[in-house]
Amino acid sequence: MAGATPKLIKELRALSGAGMLDCKKALNECEGDIDKSVSFLREAGLSKAAKKSGNVAAEGLVSILVNEDNTKATMAEINSQTDFVAKNEDFINLKNEITAHVQATGVSTTEELNKTEINGENFETYLNGRIAIIGENIVARKMVTVEADVVNGYVHTNGRVGVILAATCAPEAKEKTVALLKSLGMHAAAMKPSVISYEDLAADFIESENKAIIADIEKLNIELHRLGKPEKNIPLFVSRSQLTTEALAAQEEVFKAELKEQGKPEKIWGNILPGKIERFILDNTQLDTAHALLSQAFVMDDSKTVEQAIADVDASIKLTSYVRYELGDGIEKKEEDFAAEVAAQMAK
Length: 348
Hints:
single chain; Helicase, Ruva Protein, domain 3; 3 domains; three-stranded antiparallel beta sheet; 14 helices
């Protein structure tokens, strides 16, 4: 049987997705037999994929799929070795297919995903075939599916950050909630909150950060004093969870004593104290504004907090879930030392 011909190469490329030279080689090796050539390419591809599996995949894309009635959303981080491949149409189609498959199967780990079937074959085998075609190691690293009364997601334009938010609301507020969750996703992508509410912050985290934030401000004040600039207030606390009724009452007594010492008439204290207490709360909740979504100033209107922005849309809206992915977060990247590599080659 004849080997590779232009017609057979075209047919094999359509069937396998492999490159022209690989198809030509397969057809020549298999004497023009299409079925044998497909098997040849698959086996060669698995071999290539095995060689590439050790390569660090820290680039890629974050992908989100939301179902039609906004009750289910899936987010996946699909990694490649380079951002060049991440812009490739084959890779983009692959991450969309994997995200849809994750949503359909309900898997939440790479191990679970590898045991599923996609397009009639084992997922791991399928992915190895795509690795051979695309030419880089590819990893479906992280995935999550959130189901709720209302859910929506946002992926930043560069595909490197994704956010899913879920909420409950009154039935008549669902359409408004869908739009709001999209806006809150944009906010969270930029501001990087770690939890929904200050109530979700761990007590040991609050305690350690309390000490660190106070130390940072004290250090800053030394420099401000040297420059003759106003010094920052040193907080007693860093989270609203620490501001008990007793703590606020004690601080109010401190302010009253200060006003008395300043000679302010007691009859006007009621006009002054609310502003002082509000400022005290602001100074003593710095951890919340950094880490708690509801406590942050809303990026689309920084005159209000996210919590206030939600209430302005509809009082029935309550956030129930929040997940944020940032591409490559936690992956240890290999540092390339080009000069050392060249020197090593010259020494051989």
